[in-house]
Amino acid sequence: MTSLFEKCSIGDLDFKNRIFMAPLTRSRADDATDIPADIAIEYYKQRASAGLIITEATQISQRGKGYIKTPGIYNDKQAAKWKEITDVVHEEGGKIFLQLWHVGRISHTSIQPDGKNPVSSSAVKADTKTFTQDGYQDVSEPEALSVDGIKQTIADFKKGAELCKKAGFDGVEIHGANGYLIDQFLRDKTNKRDDAYGGSVENRARFLLEIVDAVKEVWPTNRIGVRLSPTGSFNDMGDSDPLTMFSHVVDQLNDRKVGYLHLVERFPGMDVGNDDLATINTLIEKWQGFYIANGDYDILKAKDAVQSKHADAIAFGRPFIANPDLPERLEKGAELNEPDEDTFYGGGAEGYTDYPFLSESKKTEAA
Ligand SMILES: Cc1cc2nc3c(=O)[nH]c(=O)nc-3n(C[C@H](O)[C@H](O)[C@H](O)COP(=O)(O)O)c2cc1C
Question: Is residue 57 within 6 Å of ligand 1 at its C-beta?
């Protein structure tokens, strides 16, 4: 039986265990330049014992930004700072992918270049809020991307992927989940277009697949992952028939042989119905490649998921925020530090790089 602590690989890429770090926005980048903070070097270094680190979502353009203090990957200066991060992770024997992101409608005019409206598949405003310089505010009314705008955005994803190579990443994850731009094209609660990018499942999948194809010109397929949340309602999302929509997407990703599929099976704090679970399970059965499961996994569920071949690896989110040495703690059955939600987004070292390692907790106990 396969164990959570066993090595695994995707093509020529080896991972030392199956405990992966989920992408986690921590909002500590420099807001004027979108350059990751220096302290992010230490944060990722501390977590290099993960089989794979998937970085926080990182915008591929200024238009793609929707929250203050999230990092970017659209210029050389940002790539240079990311290189410092990938270097320390590699020195520690870890692997790291960057999550390529465009928020689409989950943004605010005060964050957009020239105070413009955010873009989306269609002009459908989300009933949700975002973090701005003036606090937590309703997102702004979006405008539908033109076809030229779509082509430009695909080119921006490709440029982001190229900069990831310069920055020394092991690969990239395309963020198609959680109600951001790609998801806004995929699902019919937001996509009301009547051109080649809207309507049928084939048309709604086109934007994602053109991004995958553009990124494939930069990275070998085993170094490209795709994250999806077919049943998630976070960011005011929904679809009238997720099974049909995402079955098509999974078929297409199978054809393209992308390195991994990463599903958000459950989003924190959101209910999951039996229909949703059945949809997720059908999609996983359809998927022929490496599968990363995520959402509310604890050690027992994670062990079971890997042993039963539900998943090849588990991405842990909140447990990795609070436990830099999560693999060691899970393997030893040690107690876990509890994450502090108040320091998830923004601030400095507190709640970011100051969670104790197991060795430190022991020292404190002995003192
Ligand atoms: C503070 C925080 C930030 C997050 N940022 C991202 C992100 O940047 N990209 C993403 O795809 N998901 C993001 N998520 C979702 C997580 O990756 C993950 O799906 C979720 O936390 C459920 O996994 P868990 O139960 O192991 O925490 C975030 C979640 C949290 C709590």
Answer: yes
Domains of the chain, first to last: 8-366 (3.20.20.70)
Spell out the per-residue pLDDT of the chain, length 367, in tens. Answer: 889 999 999 999 999 999 999 999 999 999 999 999 999 999 999 999 999 999 999 999 999 999 999 999 999 999 999 999 999 999 999 999 999 999 999 999 999 999 999 999 999 999 999 999 999 999 999 999 999 999 999 999 999 999 999 999 999 999 999 999 999 999 999 999 999 999 999 999 999 999 999 999 999 999 999 999 999 999 999 999 999 999 999 999 999 999 999 999 998 777 788 899 999 999 999 999 999 999 999 999 999 999 999 999 999 999 999 999 999 999 999 999 999 999 999 999 999 999 999 988 665 555 5
Residue nearest to atom 1 of ligand 1 (CA): 344
- Chain position carrying tokens 């310069």: 166
Q: Both tokens of residue 174?
A: 């395309």
Q: Which amino acid is at 142?
A: P
Q: Estimate to the nearest angstrom the gap between the alpha carbon of 349 and the chain centroid.
A: 22
Contact between 118 and 59 under an 8 Å Cβ cutoff? The reply is no
Instruction: Concatenate the DSSP letters of all residues of 115-164 into one string.
Output: GPPPEESSS---S-EEEETTEEEEPPPPEEPPHHHHHHHHHHHHHHHHHH
Nearest atom of ligand 1 to the alpha carbon of 22: 17
CA distance 197 to 186: 9
Whether the model clears a pTM of 0.90, i.e. scores above it, the answer is yes
Known catalytic residues?
180
Q: Where are the alpha helices (DSSP H) in the chain?
A: 39-46, 76-91, 147-166, 181-186, 201-216, 242-256, 274-286, 299-307, 318-322, 326-332, 358-366
On whether the CB atoms of residues 297 and 316 are closer than 8 A, the answer is yes
- Ligand 1: atom nearest CA of 316 is 26
d(CA 182, CA 205): 9
Residue located nearest, by CA, to atom 14 of ligand 1: 24
